[in-house]
Amino acid sequence: MKNVKTEGIITKAVGGNYYVAVADGVLCCNARGVFRKEKISPCAGDNVVVSIEENAVPLIVEIKERKNHIIRPPLANLDCALLVTSAVDPVPNTLVTDKLISIFESKHIEPVIVITKQDLRECEDFAGIYRKCGFKVFYMDNSTGNGIDAIRSYISGKLSALIGNSGVGKSSLMNHLFPGLERSTGDISKKLGRGRHTTRQAELFAIDGGYIADTPGFSTVEVSRYGFIPKNELQYSFREFSEYLGKCRFRDCVHLKESGCAVTEALREGKINSSRYDSYVKMCEEAERLNEWEFKNK
């Protein structure tokens, strides 16, 4: 058998083994050592070229250019991130949601809000904050699966990822998308008020011409693992600020305490949600502290 090359997408990476979906199945592959030298790690979502030879393990020889990439969990080429939040246990956390939205906006990945467990509590106020900003919001009842058809229709043909705190219902959502998958669901730790992690690594599942990645859950303090946005760039990751940027009195305005700020004026007029703006202020404070820490350790 001569050397044959084929293209596919990595659906799972475990250790040094990469599972690549190709036209006629799935190949378990190794990767060329040159990727390590170039400090490139193949990951789920990567579009790759695989070399196949007789009596040899298939080898990933090329990684196509990525349109985006997140490091933890390693995922590439996402079209959208389904930010899963629970109506109760744990209750919705606007700061966590806003941090995730900003990170994915900065990477040109469309954030979508999915509220689970709505059989336990209504969350229209929470949902309304994000609908007003132009984000899609879906509901899903964990026990009945009501609402799953709208989610399935939206992700059709896309590369999506489920993102959220442990215990918010990602595994239940996956079980409704893929009956028979029997994804383990995590109980909520009564002591900590957060779920137990039930997914170990990111893995892509084929669905309606696209893929969806189930990712490991995280605790609230781990949100920053998805990425970091410098303070002076945060304003660009809040889409409701966009029509006011460039209209402030000072060109270097960061929309905190400056006079003549168009963003804070819009806030006072009720055109920008106060909860979202509060998140922006807290994120600026955190970014400033992290910048100082990095500077001191250079």
UniProtKB/TrEMBL annotation:
Which GO cellular component does the record give, naming just one? cytoplasm
* Pfam families with a match to the protein in the record: RsgA_GTPase (PF03193), RsgA_N (PF16745)
This one is known as Small ribosomal subunit biogenesis GTPase RsgA
Q: Which GO terms describe its biological process?
A: ribosomal small subunit biogenesis
Q: Name one GO molecular function term.
A: rRNA binding
This chain's function reads:
One of several proteins that assist in the late maturation steps of the functional core of the 30S ribosomal subunit. Helps release RbfA from mature subunits. May play a role in the assembly of ribosomal proteins into the subunit. Circularly permuted GTPase that catalyzes slow GTP hydrolysis, GTPase activity is stimulated by the 30S ribosomal subunit.
What the entry lists under SUPFAM superfamilies is as follows:
Nucleic acid-binding proteins, P-loop containing nucleoside triphosphate hydrolases
Q: How is the cofactor bound?
A: Binds 1 zinc ion per subunit.
Residue intervals of the EngC GTPase domain: 76-219
Amino acids binding GTP: T116, K117, Q118, D119, G164, N165, S166, G167, V168, G169, K170, S171, S172
Instruction: Specify the signal sequence span.
Output: none
Q: Is the Transmembrane helix keyword given for this protein? A: no
Q: Which Gene3D superfamilies match?
A: Nucleic acid-binding proteins, P-loop containing nucleotide triphosphate hydrolases, Probable gtpase engc, domain 3
- Principal location: cytoplasm
Please state the Enzyme Commission number of this protein: 3.6.1.-
